[in-house]
Amino acid sequence: MNVLQVFLTGLSLSAIYALLAVGFVVIYKGTKVVNLAQGAVMMIGVYVVFKLNTGLDFWIVALIGIAVGAAAAVIIQLILSLSKSHDHLVATIITIAIDMIVTAILLVEMRDLMLYIPGPWADAVIQIGGAAMPVARVAAFATAILAIGAFFVVFRYTTFGVRMRAAASDPETAALMGVSGRSVALWSWGIGGGLAVIAGIFLAGFPGAGLPAFGSALAFAVIPAIIIGGMDSAEGAIIGALIVGFTESVSRYLVAAYAPWMGEQIAIVVPYVIMLIVLLVRPSGLFGSREISRV
Question: Which CDD domains match (predicted)?
Answer without folding.
Answer: TM_PBP1_LivH_like (cd06582)
